[in-house]
Amino acid sequence: MLGAICGDIIGSVYERSGNSFKQEDFPLFSPGCRFTDDSVLTLAVAWAILQGEDYGQAIRSFARKWPRAGYGGSFYAWMRSDTAGPYYSFGNGSAMRVSPVGFAFDSAEEVLLQASQSASPTHNHPEGIKGAQATALAVFMARTGASKPEIAGEITRLFGYDLSRTTEQIRPGYSFDVTCQGSVPEALCVFLDSAGFEDAVRKAVSLGGDTDTQAAIAGAVAEAFYGGVPAAIAQKALEYLPVELKQIMEQFYQKYAQ
């Protein structure tokens, strides 16, 4: 989960560069960095797990508390309504927030079920569900000792994603894409192509486009696979979070750290 938050904060400033940003050599933290909706909603999912609360209720509550975190228009309308149901989204919002599921539950079957439940209050399109499930399962497999070929093979078998591509193959033609089907496979590819946590985040940002979400997804899986987030990166990222959000993260790790 911290990996997703670090990726979000690091990638936040480069999203504004549109499709022109295609570099791995960049300052990890700069004055324009901030936490965005990726971090807020990741912690909402973590809170729902900790409290046994309904995912939709937690997501709506957290979004209302931090309403200027950069939500999409459809989500913002849903968040403001007390009665709005899911809006058949296949955006990558379902994948960016799901990483706590991969850390908290102890079987692939439960991870897939909970990932679907965390997505469905908003992202009830099959691709929206699939993106959340693929991300959460990758986190779960990474933290339980699966190899990269095993992770790639199982995700491909279940979801049909092409995870055979390298960062260098994806980057030149990749453009801004906020759909699950156009961003989750790419984020997983750069994780598979990485040599460590920082390398995974740098590669994700270097694709251009939706850099904060790409880095949040890749960072979540990289944290699980590489055994955590480097201390200097974690410490710096936490400086950007409000105290309340940091406390939720600490509670989650106290309960679920392996």
Describe the 3D structure.
The protein has helices spanning 2-12, 37-51, 55-65, 73-80, 93-96, 99-104, 108-119, 126-143, 148-159, 167-170, 184-192, 197-206, 211-226, 231-238, 243-256. With 258 residues, it is mainly alpha-helical. The chain has a single domain, classed as ADP-ribosylation/Crystallin J1 (ADP-ribosylglycohydrolase fold). The protein is globular. The mean pLDDT is 95.
Concise synopsis of the structure shown:
This protein has helices at 2-12, 37-51, 55-65, 73-80, 93-96, 99-104, 108-119, 126-143, 148-159, 167-170, 184-192, 197-206, 211-226, 231-238, 243-256. The chain is built from 15 helices and no strands.
Helical content band:
55-70%
SS-based class: mainly alpha
Annotation field: number of helices? 15
Q: Spans with pLDDT under 50 lasting ≥5 residues?
A: none
The overall strand count is: 0
- Based on Cα principal axes, name the global outline: globular
Radius of gyration, taken over Cα atoms and rounded to an integer in Å: 16 Å
Q: Mean pLDDT, as a whole number?
A: 95
CATH class: Mainly Alpha
What secondary-structure arrangement, pairings included, does this model have?
Blueprint: H1 2-12, H2 37-51, H3 55-65, H4 73-80, H5 93-96, H6 99-104, H7 108-119, H8 126-143, H9 148-159, H10 167-170, H11 184-192, H12 197-206, H13 211-226, H14 231-238, H15 243-256
Name the features.
single chain, 258 residues, mainly alpha, ADP-ribosylglycohydrolase fold, 15 helices, 61% helix
